[in-house]
From TrEMBL:
Recorded GO MF terms: urocanate hydratase activity
Span of domain Urocanase N-terminal: 84-210
Official protein name in the record: Urocanate hydratase
Cofactor note: Binds 1 NAD(+) per subunit.
Pathway of action: Amino-acid degradation; L-histidine degradation into L-glutamate; N-formimidoyl-L-glutamate from L-histidine: step 2/3
Catalysis: reaction(s): 4-imidazolone-5-propanoate = trans-urocanate + H2O
Cellular compartment(s): Cytoplasm
Keywords annotated in UniProt: Cytoplasm, Histidine metabolism, Lyase, NAD
UniProt function note: Catalyzes the conversion of urocanate to 4-imidazolone-5-propionate.
Enzyme class: lyase
Membership in a protein family: Belongs to the urocanase family.
Cofactor requirements of the protein: NAD(+)
Amino acid sequence: MTFKEQIQQGIPAVLPVKKVYDLAINHAPKRKDILSAEEKKLALKNALRYFEAKHHAELLPEFAEELEKYGRIYMYRFRPDYEMKARDIAEYPGKSVQAKSIMLMIQNNLDYAVAQHPHELITYGGNGAVFQNWAQYLLTMQYLSEMTDKQTLTMYSGHPMGLFPSNKNAPRVVVTNGMVIPNYSQPDDWEKMNALGVSQYGQMTAGSYMYIGPQGIVHGTTITVLNGFRKIKKAPKGGLFVTAGLGGMSGAQPKAGNIAGCITVCAEVNPKITQVRLDQGWIDEKIIDLDELVTRVNSAKENKETVSIAYLGNIVEVWEKFDEANVYIDLGSDQTSLHNPWAGGYYPVDISFEDANSMMAENPELFKEKVQETLRRHAKAINKHTDKGTYFFDYGNAFLLEASRAGADVMNPNPTIGREFKYPSYVQDIMGPMCFDYGFGPFRWVCASGKPEDLAKTDAIACEVLEKIKENSPKEIQQQMADNIQWIKGAQENKLVVGSQARILYADAEGRMKIAKAFNKAIKKGEIGHVVLGRDHHDVSGTDSPYRETSNIYDGSQFTADMAIQNVIGDSFRGATWVSIHNGGGVGWGEVINGGFGMLLDGSKEASKRLKSMLFWDVNNGISRRSWARNSEAVFAIKRAMKSEKKLKVTLPNFVDDALLKNF
């Protein structure tokens, strides 16, 4: 069968041969045994409903074995034989070009070079899933190949509920992930519902089909590191940045450190993923001995090198060793997946990687105890360095939140609303006031042709647009503009592409609309192929996350999620090709609501109208919420937006003199 025929057949009528478990692939850890005997039967019934009754007797023992071995039913037998990668959009079967663009993005999320656990359909973060099982993938791709521009595919946590009549201006796909009743939003609730096959954790861009590999966070991390050094009034050259995590998104940190120009030490416990990052060129060196690491870092400091070093081992060992050896750390953070602390997101110190994985599945209570012991020790070591002057920030991975729950010394001795922790979130001190409040966030695009030359052309177009905008930009956003122009000019030489031919840069509404408009014109002229627009959920208005994206909201509304819900609803009727809303993300299940979108540019007048309508809303929805919280940068930005668009009229806050409140 051809590739197109395999897509169109969906779930095959004749069962494919059972596949051998590939030990060369980086697999998800075994999930804990959380279902009762009755619930296991229900999980099997739920899995078998995808298949004709004549196949049930053969598939039942196989699915039961998967549930027992891995804690989930992945249906490995149905994993396609074709190469999993984003192809030229013209290679996909279908009646709708918009649907073809979504197929392209789904396959990119599952590309072996992109996905963290590709055979388990997990893109990043340990549990950020595109689908729960391979039957869902096959059925979804079949639906997309049949869809017309007058239908919408409804996705329930990876399950394609079906094609429904709609209209050409409606989204082609609407995605929800993990949208459970709030009282059932604890970690074990997710474990149980995921094991039953009824809900999944979409992370952010994993379940939204908009992940573009670590590049997606390289830029944000680069900006964070650059501004972190600006905050401590030190040039990055010769400065030391210490952090942890080389998995999905966290793998961006060493590359970002290199672009910023500092020394980066990033610890990782997983040997496979460490080697992958070394092979990909995302890290320069790998060291397994702590004494050797100290010597190497001291040498790099002395020579003011720009270098990224992976330490294969636990990050706690690094913090403690550097304290003992008096290695001064300028910037410190952590990007392990602490939103997922009990299932592979964070590993206990002094236990081997293999033994920890066994303990995680076989003795989860002891594993939790060891993780919390490690968090207390981790925080204690960090505190010793910050006492010496290190600037430490939480990278929005729930490090401080989980450390506090473990009883670690991370609480602010003099807390105020929104500043309960000893250390700030990077959004509070850097990304929030410097970027999000002004409307700057992670705008991204993917060249649907798959051609590197198309990406080079879009880079040049974007750079030209930004340089023209910068000429008349107010002084308040000149630094943001300059950083992004520098970024896009160096994008090709930094070799950021993994998987699809994609790019990201931080832009405000004006920049996003003008860049998109220029792309659409180039497509119409035949200069480039179709382009898919999107963004990370880690943005101005897509996400309500009190410990990350909205951590610099201090009016008491940081635990509300109106903004994210309004965002995705507004995007859906303003022209998005697909929209998504998730419970959970980089900070954990039940801790955040995330909204995302994708939009296909095809060179048409309709695309030009859609991009203007939707991108303006997508950004300014968030700026308006931030301005109402009395963030002065956002008040400035929303006033500019109202001046540029006469149809926009936003309620502005009146500021209260704090002196009036002294006696109350």
